[in-house]
Amino acid sequence: MTDVRSTWFTRALTIAGLGVIGACTEAAPAQPTFQADVLPILAANCVRCHAVPAIGGAPGDGACTTPASGPRTCGFRLDSYDDVVIFEGDPATTDDDVKVLGAGAIALAIPFRVDSTTAPMPPVAPLGDVERATLVAWAAGDPPDRTARPGNRAPTITTEVTPGAIATIAYHLDDADGDLTMGVLRAVGPGGDLLVAPIQAGRATVQFAAPAAGSYALVARVDDGGGWIDLPAGAVEVTP
Amino acid sequence: MTARRRHRAARRTAVVVAAAAALAACAVPVDPDPIGDYTSWKRLDVRGPAPGHGDTYRVIYVNPTAADPAQSFVDGYAAGAVIVKEIRDDVDGSPGDLRYLAIMRRLPDDGDLPIQGGWLFSQASTPTADETHADFCWNRCHLAAPYRGAWYDYRQ
């Protein structure tokens, strides 16, 4: 009789325990959204190598296209949904531009890398089941979702500028929600709408040499996963 | 068939036709050196769904350069490496009818051919048919492949 009671007690405890675990286990969203569900996974597991510049053997400068015309495409980045131009030469043509494909463009390949048995990604610490299922469900979208989180707050940028023939621009790009944020800093002035440098969340200093001297308005074109916005970022004086 | 199913089927057909038209519109004729008889090369069979190839049976042939175990992937596959992928129906785990060929050639980046990551990607309906190039192969899939543009380590 004692044994029977013990068996029933053990079963009840097991069922209750499974119920608790089931209630507490996070489930992958059925329709993952880019900013809220996908970007945090990419930020935590992928972008250390798959960003600009690519490191650790990730496709970068060595993985470029040679089109007959138009920009070259070199590698991909997982901190951006969209393709991003990271180098512009002559403003009159795109033939000397270099762009990097975004996560949306290469989404088809993501499930195959995270599930690969021979060369899985990430290579050292595999994704958990929920993370993996989230990426797979997102990548199956046609196109993959890129919507923003409700109530998403826009990034902000501040700059400190030192004028000169080669001006120096120290910037601080910040996102109140802590979203992974990247983009480009552009200068609009006598020489046209020019790319200054690719930028990422945090503090950094970049230099700017324009083809024509004068005053340039700085604009940060950034995306925190919720879509691209233009942020006024002060002005810079380029001397002859 | 219910109206809803007919609508779904029609929508699916429209999507497939639109995708095929888009791919065809992006295809560019290319004229690289012919691959010749590749069926004596090293062979690897792969099944299951794959980006761009659907749920198919792929018979992959790699030439001796691509299979050379002396290659280092620091620089990627050696120039002259050729990979021919026969995309076939999967008939209960066996290769069925040929749908098309997908061909990768590792070429120097000094000619008129559209090279992507060191590779020329082309497709042909049969082994002797004209070849076309499409950006889709690289941009949507092989760019993320683990072995410098290839999905398998053919040295092994």
Describe the structure.
The complex is a heterodimer of chains A (240) and B (156). Chain A is an alpha+beta fold and 240 residues long. Chain A has helices at residues 2-24, 34-45, 110-114, 129-139, and strands at 72-76, 84-87, 98-101, 156-162, 167-174, 182-189, 192-200, 202-208, 214-223, 228-238. Chain A has a four-stranded antiparallel sheet with strand order 7-6-9-10, with no helix packed on it. A three-stranded mixed sheet of chain A has the order 1-3-2, with no helix packed on it. Chain A is globular and about 60 Å long. The mean pLDDT of chain A is 90. Chain B is an alpha+beta fold. Chain B has a five-stranded antiparallel sheet. In chain B, strands 1-7 form a two-stranded antiparallel sheet. Chain B contains three helices and seven strands; from the N terminus they run H-E-E-E-H-E-E-E-E-H. In chain B, strand 2 (42-50) and strand 3 (54-62) form a beta hairpin. Mean pLDDT of chain B is 85; it is low at 4-25. In chain B, 21% of the residues lie in helices and 34% in strands. The radius of gyration of chain B is 17 Å and the shape is globular. Chain A binds chain B through residues 59, 62-68, 73, 75-76, 101, 105-106, 108-110, 112-113, 116, 118-119, 121, 142, and chain B through 15, 50-52, 76, 109, 112, 114-118, 135, 138-141, 143-149, 151-153.
What is the count of DSSP helices of chain A, taking H or I runs of 4+ residues?
Answer: 4
- State the separation between the terminal residues of chain A, measured CA to CA: 98 Å
Q: What is the radius of gyration of chain A computed over CA atoms, rounded to a whole number of angstroms?
A: 23 Å
Ends distance of chain B:
50 Å
What is the strand arrangement across the widest sheet of chain B?
2-3-4-5-6
Largest sheet of chain A: 4 strands, antiparallel
Helix content of chain B: 10-25%
Tell me which protein chains meet in the greatest interface and how many residues each side has: A-B, 24 and 27 residues
Percent in strands of chain B: 25-35%
For the sheet with most strands of chain B, the description reads: 5 strands, antiparallel
* Helical amount of chain A: 10-25%
